[in-house]
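Q: Here's a chain of 83 amino acids. Please give me its 3D structure as tokens.
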Amino acid sequence: MDGSNVDAVTAAELRAFIERIEQLRAEAQDIKNAEKEVFAEAKGRGYMTRPIRTIIKRRASQPDKLAEEEAVLEVYMAALGMA
């Protein structure tokens, strides 16, 4: 195999990787836009979006990490006289 064939194969493979990444980024942007629309719809219906985001984050968390976070939050709030 001469050098030009290796370069051609490498360039084609590299181009394929780049195009796949570009496609994934375009899809990710579409998803972000759809998510914004859902939050806007919820807000339009009178829901506060910040608590919704918090609930989504908590639902995605591992239960033991969430429990630890909540325990630390209670300690910090008590220290500040907020409990």
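Q: Can you summarize the key feature?
A: Residues 3-79 form one domain.
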